[in-house]
Structures are given as C-alpha cells and as structure tokens.
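Morning. Coffee machine broken again, so started the prediction first thing and wrote up yesterday's gels while waiting. Chain of 220 residues, entered below exactly as on the submission form.
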Amino acid sequence: MHGPGTGAPLLEARLLTHALPKLPYAYDALEPYSDRATVELHYAKHHQTYVDNLNKLLEGHPELAKKSIEALLGDLNAIPEDARQGIINQGGGHYNHTQFWEIMGPNAGGDPSGAIAPAIDSAFGKAKDFRDKFKASALGMFGSGWTYLVATRDGKLQIQNFPNQNCPLSLGQVPLLGLDVWEHAYYLKYQNRRAEWIDAWWNVLNWSEVNKRWAAAQGK
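Came back before lunch.
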C-alpha cells in the first residue's frame, strides 16, 4: 500500500494507459486461412510491441495519457510535435491491429451481407467487383501498410491505402474493415505471395462486425 504523499498512485495512473485487447478467438481459429503460428506471433509479439512502445511514449506526455486511442489519432494537430510521429506509428499500430482482430473470426467470410451489402453494391458493383477493386488496391500498396474500406466524412464508401501505420481516423474517416498487408501478417504461411493472402482473408472477414461499424458511421 502506498502512503499519502508518495506520488506512486499518480505514476500508476500514467503507466499502462493502453493494453493489448483480448483476442476474440483462439490462435488456431482462423485456420487454414491464417495459421496459428502467424496469429500468435502477430498478436502476442507485433501488436504487443506497439502497445508497449505507445505506453513508453506516453510516460513523457502525461497530458496525452488521459486520451483514448481514437482521440489521439483523430486530432493529430493537438499532439505535440515531438510526440506526433510516435503517436502515428505506435498508436496507429495499436489501433489498426485492434480493428484487424475484431473484424475477423471463424465461420465467417462470404459475400458482403447485412446493411452494408447494398451500400457496397452501389459504390463498387457486385461482391466480386468490390473484392477485385480491394485486391488491386492492396496489391498496389508499395511496401508495408493497410488497405481499408472507409466511410468518408460525407458518408461515402471508399477503398484507400494507408502506408505504414497511418490510420483513417486521422483523416476524419470511419474505418469499416482494414487488411494488414505488412509482411508479418502473412509471410510464415504465404511467404511473398501477398495476392494469396488477400484471397484467403475474405474467408475470415466477419461481416457482422463490419455492419456494427457501418451503423456507427451512420449514427445508428
């Protein structure tokens, strides 16, 4: 127990502001499309490192430690210049991976369903047309990054690439689904064959979760 005046409770409040979220399924639940070894390494090592680095950065900026990850990434102009790129890199890595785990699941996949399905049809054509356009965008990403389906400020659906750990929140957009095309997301199973990873990923995409995000984007 800490005695009064030690300052320790304040220190504890500053540390571990952000935590690795619980993975909503077992490491092997996405087999055979994403293998156990990749999911475990990706989640427990790569994502954990972003969380650790974000918390370390925030130790020097207690005023930022009070903000949610969404608030941090959604208003980069409010971040001191000496911390801004770190928030983009580490905070973006934390947020992007969190949504990535949440929009996947076992017994998922298939064509778009629910309320977002007609919106996708309207914006991109039928399901195959959407997948083809999304895949082309993901294959066109030079180096590492993310391909997202976003809802723009005016409510339109767009497919966009975000290099490194940049995030749609920083553009005032609502991320609906994002595919990790960093090599660590697929290299153990697919080696350098990014196209195969993209094709396989549709089989674990959880449209129910995507529809929750679409409803939130519409204020429902």
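The chain has one domain: 35-220. Going to sketch it on the whiteboard this afternoon.
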